[in-house]
Specification:
Radius of gyration: 17 Å
Strand content: 15-25%
Number of helices: 4
Shape: elongated
Largest sheet: 3 strands, antiparallel
Number of strands: 3
Length: 91
């Protein structure tokens, strides 16, 4: 195995071991679609289409993963969603 292949293999293994968490948004009977969409665009940097799709998934399925990444990256975003009155948690 050449050095280039060995380095590539090590990088792939390293990427697989990084802990990925998710922000899960839950449905509620309080917030409007517009508020949820606007908040997802501002906080999670969704496109309008992504935000609308997530809001529909939450409405019909009860929950939706809206952002993935490392915990330290997600924590401030989840806090902003909660401050905006949405029901979300990091799993």
């Amino acid at each position: 195995m050449g050095i280039k292949e060995k380095v590539s293999e090590e990088l792939l293994l390293e990427e697989e071991t990084v802990n990925q968490n998710e922000i899960v948004l839950f449905n509620d009977d309080v917030n409007t679609f517009d508020h949820v969409i606007e908040t997802l665009m501002n906080v999670c940097e969704h496109t309008p289409e992504q935000a609308e799709q997530c809001s529909l998934i939450v409405h019909y399925n009860g929950k939706c993963t809206v952002k993935t990444g490392e915990y330290t990256y997600l924590k401030p975003r989840c806090s902003k969603l909660l401050q905006a009155g949405l029901n979300a948690e990091i799993i």
